[in-house]
């Protein structure tokens, strides 16, 4: 990448003469203002097309030495510059991404302590990013942040789409409410989780989606979370002001800093059209360019897995009931009687491989393959897994050879049980074991409370670990899909081997009692702002009771809704999560999953309203092929879209849509598949059921 | 090792019929009794030659689930057995060690919770060891110990030789006082340390040495501390009852347990002759046999080091003053101006190697060789060292080749700055770097508060780390000498590559203001009960001001006291810690350090009184050569010993003793060296000064 920033001008001011500093976005529609309030207190505000998005909001830090960086500031000087570059992601929703912004770097000085703090603002046409920067200085050499005081002052009692703030999980259903209603709804929104730590009756997580009564869509999040705690937002619900709330360490400290250093970017994406929120690349643009020199080994992947049968309770991760507990390295499984419900048997895995291979999949995940699952969770057990020792009925070499022969790449599973030291101690051996056995991607898991006790999933110490695992994996040319890790913030630009994250309520909850039918209509506005999610869609059998008589869960979507997710829930890693035998009952609908691409030249956001619906079209990377996904929420509706994103030409569209009486609860498996000729002038009208959706594949007539 | 324990008899009792269970030591002089007190409360007591050593004392545990294992117990049965085996240590004070004891395993059941706990007692002629054992059971599968309730009830207001209980350091001077005086003396005894956490005004550390008014010497400690927190003792100073006080984790929990499991052994060494405390091998005998199959690469070592010049402030570990802080991997030292006081320069190291080689040493330690020392301490900095990158003026390859040519083995230094995760992350690369550059031993350091904040040096999490480092080192055939780690508990039997520990106030404190002249007359009774100490003796120049004008410390020993330590302070790793130029001024005295052995066939404890004096003779391993060390405390005295440990024959003894006006403060460097013919019938009378001592080498006349 060449020199990106062109310095437009650099002014020096006498501290006493500082006026408000203003900055416009390239198209002039966003305007921000930096100002020192009385007492030298830094603040900012933001407007969009003249409407206030962020009212004057304070900036600064509290430090462990009982001083603050919130007041007594003077502006030493302000540097202005602009950026307009286009970069090529290794994979993504687009094959090239433009980053176009104006920048203002405000150099602040606090005379009382003779120390400096800079705030860098980047204003794009789709939103604002800003971060704190601490130049190298003896007066702020090593320091501890006890609170970040960044405010996001809302202009009214907006509608928010939120999940409870929590130091350990994001696996909650979303609540839509007025800001003033959050406090009253908080308790009910904190549903049970294996590890959870809430902190405030008005604390919520980012990415937070908001909608104003005058039609603005606002998204608050962060970008490039590196060596800093994850930020939550705590609401002053009298004044509708959010303040950043960092995840603490066991001592209540937030961040250990060493200058020169920066915080992550705080982001405000804004538009009067909800589709622009989905189209925003601001989060990626605020991350550093790719740091991996050779990315040839990184590839999107469509996969199946021996997984849903365990999630539903049809089979199990564990092997035997004979052990009160396991000692890795000492427990001898070879003499133990299997309980007969182990999912990851060589035979069963081969059955999945056969099906995946016959249907053109790339990868195969197997959970529960390695010893230790008999007592893996909830015991604060240090060495819970070793990541290299298979159960007696899982033949690593045989499966390796079988998968290779069938053209399937095996995907490793590393459940850490949140025993972080144990994982780091075994990491080299575990990654090497993968390479030796033909695995080039790993799904890692962090289920349960962090070990050692006292740490949380989202504090600085843990955030550091997740990136360490990704960086070390890159050394081995291994791709990472981390579950229960901290939510993504666009780091996949810098480390594109981070091909997936969970960090939200995934499909598994459909087997844990069900998620709201609207769930996937809000995730692209929230969780996916930071990066792709391994949502694991494709569940065709709604009645989990059929798989496991002890499980009465119901999957709250229609079958076509499941198909739509392959387009609307962007991920370079897409799973067909259901069982082969369930797909075999619906092979005509399964054809869409077989066909759908996982990497794209371009994406168009055709319809969108948070928690209601979204319709997305994408062009397959390097191929004249387009897919459309329409995901609907609880209210039946008719999607009306134009195909004007197509080049002039003649095409055939294969449309998978809900049957006329479809309903996520009563009649989820009815669908219609039809073909029609289309051109760039075609308008499509597709009815979608409650919890429904549709999916379309379009190819040129010639290539049909 | 063959089947060691011969079951003498196993009785089964009805719970209601249980009488006190008694056990005698092999020679019958020690007798212990296990008894259930009212309410089914387990207790024990111990006598020596009819005198009570431990009055009835309670046993048990408190658990996290708010239940205890302290009462409601019944005795299910008692197994009795005996052991008499002789084993061969890889190195040590003896070339073979006899372990001879009677054992009683008491199986307890707590009906209220249907759970079992065993207590295993081993009674040797020199003392008692007992531990808790938790059989595999679903009712105690995973459990958390919040307190261990083991008591050691003293029979009166004994004299104790103690240092303050502390979760982070043992680097204190010893205080001799009555038990009743501990509380009043505690505050003054807690001298400053870089990391320290005291917990109780009557809390003390083990190994605790005690003396009763009727002449019993009692030592309380623990053996085989593995995956459990380090035990302190907290005194009820009204009743003179010590209770175990475990080092907590950041949540206040003590130990995470998984059955089957055991605690470390709690030990009571006792005699009416102080010399027997020193001769006891009970701590080693309670540890597991060697777990390293090939020990051929483990070797005792006499070494010098580029170290004392940094400790005194004459030179420095760091390289430059130009850095406000260091970022490993980013800071480029090659362009920085050195401050000129860096000790670990190639040239300086070569000078030390020359001197060490000329004088027959084996090894050479160099501290401050690797980048990061400019800001290594006190910043809660995560990645403080990488353990592989040298300063620009330390040429690893050149020194490797030079040392090899001169017959010197380089000793690596890994200061971790207590950043544990960082060390574990770099450990493989660091150990491999050692092997690649001819280092087969490492001195590791854990200076400062543990990172992450909230952990302590001696809790279960950290104890686990220290052993991990030793085990991993063994994989690389590397010997470990860990400083600031948890105090040793005889684990060097199981892992003989653990060739040294500090874990006490070492010689360095003589340059930090000085230690008590009696210090080395108590350490063998306390710290060394658990294993050898890298005390780093051999300081010939008392006036530190001569090395560094800004340091007014004084070494509170005579020169001959320093010589004596090579015999009295047993270690397979012995340093000649002073500078070559200081030795060059006293080459006749230095001859003793050149001559003295570091591995032994046998040892004799000729005179001993804690905090007063001790005199030890040892026979060089595999050689007709004997050494005697006499270390004296604050009172001048005449040592009178018989050489009857010698085989019948004619010998020449070379005696290094304090000059007649010697005194540690006023006249420390005066000494006499003389030779005389001796036989096994010779009695030696040697006067020793205040803070003085003497050293003797004896060889057959023929071999002189």
Could you characterize the architecture of this molecule?
2 copies of one chain form a homodimer. Chain A is of the alpha+beta class and 704 residues long. The first copy, chain A, contains 12 helices and 37 strands. The longest helix of chain A has 17 residues, at 420-436. The model of chain A is unreliable at 7-17 (pLDDT under 50). The interface between A and B is medium-sized, with 32 and 32 residues.
Q: Calculate the terminal CA-CA distance of chain A, rounded to whole Å.
A: 40 Å
For the biggest sheet of chain A, the summary is:
11 strands, antiparallel
Radius of gyration of chain A, in Å, reads 25 Å
> What percentage of amino acids of chain A are in beta strands?
25-35%
How many helical stretches of chain A? Answer: 12
What gross morphology of chain A would you assign? globular
Main interface: chain pair and counts: A-B, 32 and 32 residues
| Topology, number of strands of chain A | 37
Arithmetic mean of pLDDT of chain A: 96
Structural class of chain A: alpha+beta
The percent range for helix content of chain A is 10-25%
Low-confidence stretches of chain A: 7-17
Oligomeric status: homodimer
């Amino acid at each position: 990448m060449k020199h990106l920033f062109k310095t437009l001008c650099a002014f020096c001011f006498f501290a006493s003469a500082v006026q408000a500093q203003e900055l416009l976005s390239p198209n002039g529609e966003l305007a921000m203002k930096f100002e020192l309030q009385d007492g030298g207190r830094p603040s900012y505000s933001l407007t969009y097309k003249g409407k206030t998005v962020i009212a004057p909001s304070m900036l600064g830090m509290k430090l462990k030495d009982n001083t603050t960086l919130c007041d007594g500031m003077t502006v030493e000087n302000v540097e202005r510059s602009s950026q307009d570059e286009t970069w090529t992601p290794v994979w993504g929703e687009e094959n090239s991404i433009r980053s176009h912004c104006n920048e203002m770097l405000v150099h602040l000085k606090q005379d009382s302590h003779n120390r400096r703090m800079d705030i860098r603002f980047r204003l794009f046409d789709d939103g604002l990013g800003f971060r704190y920067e601490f130049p190298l200085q003896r007066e702020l050499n090593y320091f501890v942040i006890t609170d970040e005081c960044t405010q996001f002052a809302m202009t009214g009692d907006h509608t928010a789409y939120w999940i409870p703030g929590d130091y350990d999980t994001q696996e909650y259903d979303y609540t839509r409410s007025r800001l003033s209603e959050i406090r009253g709804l908080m308790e009910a929104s904190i549903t049970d989780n294996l590890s959870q730590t809430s902190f405030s009756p008005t604390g919520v997580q980012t990415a937070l989606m908001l909608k104003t009564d005058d039609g603005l869509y606002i998204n608050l999040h962060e970008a490039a979370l590196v060596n800093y705690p994850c930020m939550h937002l705590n609401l002053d619900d009298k004044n509708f002001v959010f303040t950043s709330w960092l995840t603490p360490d066991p001592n209540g400290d937030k961040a250990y800093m060493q200058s020169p250093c920066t915080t992550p970017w705080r982001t405000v994406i804004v538009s009067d059209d909800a589709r622009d929120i989905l189209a925003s690349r601001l989060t990626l643009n605020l991350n550093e360019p790719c740091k991996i020199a050779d990315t040839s080994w990184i590839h999107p992947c469509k996969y199946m897995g021996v997984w849903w049968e365990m999630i539903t309770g049809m089979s199990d991760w564990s092997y035997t009931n004979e052990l009160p507990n396991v000692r890795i390295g000492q427990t001898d499984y070879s003499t133990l009687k299997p309980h007969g419900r182990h999912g990851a048997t060589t035979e069963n895995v081969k059955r999945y491989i056969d099906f995946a291979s016959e249907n053109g999949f790339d990868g195969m995940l197997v959970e529960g393959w390695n010893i230790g699952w008999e007592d893996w969770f909830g015991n604060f057990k240090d060495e819970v897994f070793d990541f290299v020792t298979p159960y007696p009925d899982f033949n690593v070499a045989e499966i390796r050879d079988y998968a290779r022969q069938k053209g399937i790449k095996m995907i490793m599973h590393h459940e850490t049980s949140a025993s972080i030291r144990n994982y780091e101690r075994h990491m080299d051996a575990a990654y090497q074991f993968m390479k030796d056995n033909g695995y080039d991607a790993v799904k890692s898991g962090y289920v349960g409370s962090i070990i050692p006790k006292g740490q949380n999933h989202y504090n600085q110490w843990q955030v550091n670990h997740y990136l360490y695992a990704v960086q070390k994996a890159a050394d081995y040319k291994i791709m990472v899909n981390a579950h229960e890790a901290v939510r993504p913030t666009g780091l996949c630009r810098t480390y594109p081997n981070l091909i997936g994250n969970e960090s939200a309520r995934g499909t598994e909850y459909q087997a844990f009692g069900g998620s709201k039918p609207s769930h996937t209509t809000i995730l692209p506005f929230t969780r996916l702002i930071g990066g792709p999610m391994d949502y694991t869609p494709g569940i065709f059998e709604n009645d989990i009771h059929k798989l496991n008589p002890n499980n009465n869960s119901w999957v709250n979507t229609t079958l076509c809704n499941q198909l739509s997710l392959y387009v609307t829930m962007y991920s370079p890693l897409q799973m067909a999560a259901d069982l082969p035998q369930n797909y075999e009952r619906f092979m005509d609908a399964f054809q869409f999953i077989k066909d759908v691409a996982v990497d794209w030249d371009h994406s168009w956001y055709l319809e969108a309203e948070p928690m209601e619906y979204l319709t997305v079209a994408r062009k397959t990377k390097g191929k004249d092929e387009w897919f459309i996904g329409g995901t609907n929420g609880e209210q039946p509706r008719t999607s009306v879209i134009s195909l004007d994103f197509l080049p002039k030409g003649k095409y055939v569209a294969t449309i998978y849509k809900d049957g006329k009486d479809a309903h996520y609860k009563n009649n989820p498996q009815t669908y219609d598949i039809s073909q029609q000729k289309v051109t760039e002038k075609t308008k499509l009208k597709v009815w979608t059921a409650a919890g429904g959706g549709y999916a379309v594949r379009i190819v040129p007539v010639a290539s049909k």
